[in-house]
Amino acid sequence: MPEETGAQLGLRTLEDISALILQSHDLQETLANIVNLVAKRMATDVCSIYLLEEDGETLRLHATRGLSRLSVGITMKISEGLTGLAVETRGVVATDNAPLHPRYKYFRQTKEEKVLSFLGVPFFERNNPIGVIVVQNREARTFTPAEVSALSTIAWQISSIVSNAKLLDSVRKKEEERAFYEAEVERLKQTGAPQESSPAKRASTRQAMLSGIGIAPGFSAGKVTILNRGNSAQPVVERARPRAEEHKRLKIALEKARIQTIYLEKRVSEMLSEADAAIFHSHLMILEDRGFAGKISSLIDEGLGAQRAVSEVVGQYVAAFSQMADPYLRERSADMEDIGRRLVDALNGHQRSPDKLPENRIIIARELLPSDLATMDPGKVIGIATEKGNLNAHAAIMARALGIPAVFGVEGLLKQVGVRSFVIVDGTSGCVYLNPDQSVKLEYQRLQGEYDQKQRALEGIRELPAETPDGCRVNLLANIGLLSDVRVAHLNGAEGVGLYRTEFPFMTRRSFPDREVQASVYQKVLEGFPGMPVTIRTLDIGGDKGLSYFPHPKEDNPFLGWRSIRVSLERQDIFREQLAGILIASPHGRCNLMFPLISGVDEVRTIKGILEEVKEELRRDGKPFDEEVKVGIMVELPAAVLVADQLAREVDYFSIGTNDLIQYTLACDRNNQKVRKWYDPYHPAVLQAIKRVADAAAGAGIPATLCGEMAAEPINAVLLMGMGVRSFSLSAPCLPRVKEAIRRTPLSRARRIADRVLALETAQGIRGYLEGVEKELGAEP
Ligand code: PEP
Ligand code: MG
Predict the structure, then answer these.
(1) pLDDT for 137-192, tens place per residue?
(2) Residue 47 catalytic?
(3) Is 658 in the pocket of ligand 1 (CB under 6 A)?
(4) Structurally, how many domains does the chain consist of?
(5) Residue from 660, 665, 734 to probe ligand 1 pocket by mutation (most atoms less than 8 Å from CB)
(6) Domain termination residue (choose one: 456, 488, 507)
(7) What is the pLDDT of residue 67?
C-alpha cells in the first residue's frame, strides 16, 4: 500500500467522496466516480460496486473501473462467487489467489481472468446488506488490515448514498401516486360527487369525542391555543432574487438556525436534563452537515429561491424518515420538520414567541415539535393534543418528563377544533373531548377530583417507607433509561435505581460513545441518587432494541438470536469500553453492575474474567474506581432459573426480569399481539420459576430484585412479596400505588395469598382468585 496509513487513506477518500456526492445528482454517476477514485487511491487494477436487488438474492454490477464496461448491469446470485460470499457471510472476503478459492466463479462478461487478489466488503442499510464494494489486483496482493479498514469506511459511506438515493426514489414514486389520486379526486368532484361542507365554520362549538394515543397520563380541561394550523400545506411564494443573494440568505439563515438550536439545547438541558437536550444536538449535526446544506445550495443553483429549496430538501428528508420501518427513526421526521421550520423562520426574519401564551392553555397542534415545547413556558400548558406523533416522538418524551397530560395521533383534530373550543384532554385513556356537554364536564371534574386526591394521597406516602403493617420492609426502586427519569424517580419516592437500561444513551447518538463519554452520563445518574444504589445494566441490544449505527444480522427469530450479553461477549471492544465507562463513574455513587440475558455459570465466569482485566487496565492507567462494585445478573431465561442455585454462588445479587422470563418460559414474543393471550404472568410455570429464583437467592443469602413490568400491578407486588421477593424495580410512576398496597397488606396475608396461588393449577383460576383478593383488599380501610 502507498505511504499513507489505512486510516488516513480512508479519511481522505471519504472527504473526496463527500465532495463527489455534492457534485453529482445521480446515483449511477456518483458510483462511477467513486470506483475511479478508490481504484486510484488504493492502487488497484479493478474497483467495482454491486448493489443487491429487491429480491435480496441478486447482485447487480452498477459501476466498475477495470472490468469490461459492457459488464455493467450483469447480475449474479449471492450464492455464486466471492462477491456473493461477502453478502452471504455479511463480512469481508479477502484472498490473494481468487481462482483457488472454493467459492470462486468466473463471470465471462467481466473479462477478469488475469485478476488474482480479491477484497470485497459488504455494506448495509440498517442491518441488511445492500451491496458490496470489491477491489481486485492482477498480481497476488495480500490486503493489509489497514486497507481492509479503509475500504470498510468507504463502504459505510456508500451505504448512506445508496439508501438516500433509494429513499428519494420512493419519495418520488409516492409523490407521483399522490398527484394521481389528487387528480382523481378532482375529477370525481367535477363529475358531481357529493362534497363535504367546510367544517371550520362550526368548529368552535362542535361537540365530539376523538381518540388518539395517550402519551402522558392525567386529565386537563380548558381553553385552547392552536399552533401552526396547516403550516405544512402553505405554498411557498417568494419574490425572485439574484442567485448570489439567495445563497447569502441561506448562509445567514443556517447560521441563525444553528445559534437558535444551541440556545434551545441549553434551555432544555436546564429545563429537563442534558440527555433530553441531546435531541437538539442531533438537530445541530444536521444543520452543520455538508450534505444537507449542499442539497439546498444545488436547488438554488437550479433556480429555486432559498425558502423553496429549504422546503424541498426538508420535505425529501421528512418523507424519507416517515417511510422507515423502525418506529424510533420514523419519529425523527418530526425533528426534520422542526429544523426546516427554524430555517424558514430564519430566512424570513420571523421570531417565534410562544412565551406569550395565556395561562392554563391546552395546546392543539397538527404536530408538536421538540422546539415548540422547549420555547414554551411549561407552567402555562395544562394539556396537549395533536394530530400527529407517537409514543416515541421526542415531544412525547418531553411531555412525559414535564408531567403534562397529552394525547397524540388524534385524527381530524384540527378540522374539528376551533379557537373558542373548550377541550378536555385525558392522557390516561387517550381521549379528547371537544365542547363536552355539562354531564361529561361534571364526570371529568369528578374524575379529576379523584385523581388529584389519589395523587395527594400518594404524595403523602412518598417519604414513608414501603413497609407492611407487620413490619416487613420492601425496597422500591426505579427502572430508568433517560436522565430525565431521575427527576421522575424522585418525585415518586424511588429509593434508588434497580435497573438503568443503558441502551438509551447509546440510542440518542450516532456512533458508540467512548468510555469517557459514557462515564459522564453514568456519573450523572449516580450523582442523581446520592447514597442510594444504582444498578447499571450493560447493553441489552438485539431483540426489539437496535442501534442505527450498529449493523445487526437479519435474524428469523431475533429474540432467540444475537442479543444482549451475547453481543457484548462477541464484541468485546464495545463491552470492555462500557465496563470501563461504568467503573470510571463508579466512585460517584453506590454503583452496581448488572449483566442481562445470562444463561449459565460459564458465562458469568467469563464476564467476571473480562471485568477483572478491565479493572487491571484501569489500575495501570491510574484511573480510580470503586473496588467494591457489586456484580449481579438478570435471571430472565428458563435456563438461568434451572441453575439458579449455582448462579447464586457466583454473583452478589439477582434481578428477575419477568418481561423476558415470561416470553421465554411460554415461548411468546413479548411484542406480538397475536400471541398476547399466551403471554401470561399468571401461568403457574412463570410463578413457580419466580419462586424458585427467590428461594435460590434466599438460600445463598443474596438479594433478589424483581424488575419486570409484572410487579407494576399492586396485587402482583403483594403476591410476589408473599412469595419471598423483597425488592422491586419499576417504572417510577407505578411506585406509589405499589407502595400503598404494601403498606396496607400484612406480610402474613401476602404469604397466605401466595400459598394459595402457588397451589392453583391454571392461570385463569389464579386470575379469578386474585381479582377477588383485590376487591377485598380495596374494601379494607
Ligand atoms: C425484563 O426482561 O424483565 C427486563 C426488565 O428487561 P427488559 O425489559 O429491558 O428486557
Ligand atoms: Mg430483559
Answers:
(1) 988 888 888 788 888 878 887 887 777 776 666 656 555 555 655 565 555 555 44
(2) no
(3) yes
(4) 4
(5) 660
(6) 456
(7) 86
